[in-house]
Amino acid sequence: MTRADEPIDPNERRLVNPRDIERVRFSTLREMSKSAAHYLHACQRRYEPTGEASQKLGSGTHALLFGTPAVAVFGPGTFTPPGEKKAKEYKGVKSGAYWDAFQLEHEGEVILSPAEYEESKAMADAIRSHPIAGPLLFKRGTLHEYEVLWSYCGRKMASHLDAYRYVMTEGRGPGTLIDVKTSRDGNPARFGWSALRYHYYAQLACYSEAMESLGHPTPDPYIVLVENERPYVVSVLRVVPRAIEFGRRQLRGWMEQLLRCEAANAWGGYSECIEELDLPGDRLTEDLED
């Protein structure tokens, strides 16, 4: 079992202890669905997203849709390497001095290739022009990229909401919570499986808990979903109460596990003992017996 104050490799620097992180974010908390070791890894400063194309398009779409953070397009250009006087032509390959300098200049921004920029822009435009998604996201009074500082089960949290609207006027209904997602398959009849796999129900439950902690009524949760392939079809999904309740149970289980790990400063993997390996599922076993 790994302790956060012990490097995994003696040549590596000391691990960041999750107990020293002031506020927990859902993006790291959901790693508890795998194991505490995965959560420990996600908490390291050196940890970065995988940079997969789908993640790039998602980040680009969000940035272009809401106007923050800034977007920088990386492509062919001229650059004067350190120690040289003459500029050179570069093809836009993500390696070498040109790429390193570009990253430094645009730190904190979403960096996209020209092709990724065009696709992200098309997706953002599709959402903005959709007859339901556009008005839902950009209705007057809607807060975008809204940061909430709150506490859950006694642990400090920070949550970043794509869009939230609540008019604190007597007689008004609950607020509206909207999360923008991109997917290869945006068919509402099948997306429920993706939402389960990527913990979207727990994510929206987390954001609902955040707003409730501020004294707001439970918001109506929506997902604005855009496909990341042409023709960039947009769907608007209202997440039903039982799905949010399922997410709440997941969220609480992960947080309770996290608090136990923080108390013991122990960050184990899937199991600390020898497990039995058998054929998966009863059906395969029945086929063998037949």
What brief labels describe this structure?
single chain, 290 residues, 5-stranded mixed β-sheet, two-stranded parallel ribbon
In words, what does this structure look like?
The protein is an alpha/beta fold. The protein has a domain at 18-48 and 130-264: Lambda Exonuclease, Chain A (Alpha-Beta Complex). It has helices at 26-29, 36-42, 53-66, 96-105, 114-129, 133-138, 188-197, 200-213, 241-264, 282-289; strands at 71-73, 77-79, 88-90, 110-112, 143-152, 155-165, 176-183, 220-227, 234-238. The strands form three sheets. Strands 5-6-7-8-9 form a five-stranded mixed beta sheet, with helices on both faces. The protein is globular.
Any idea what the radius of gyration is? 22 Å
CATH architecture of the domain at 18-48 and 130-264: Alpha-Beta Complex
Distance between the termini: 42 Å
Shape: globular
User: Which percent band covers the strand fraction?
Assistant: 15-25%
Helical amount among residues, as a percent range?
Answer: 25-40%
Order of helices and strands: HHHEEEHEHHEEEHHEEHH
- CATH topology name of the domain at 18-48 and 130-264: Lambda Exonuclease, Chain A
The overall pLDDT, averaged over residues, is: 90
Largest sheet at a glance? 5 strands, mixed
In total, the number of strands is 9
Structural class: alpha/beta
Strand neighbour order, sheet with most strands: 5-6-7-8-9
For the record, what CATH class of the domain at 18-48 and 130-264 applies? Alpha Beta
* Spans where pLDDT lies below 50 across 5 or more residues: none
Number of helices: 10
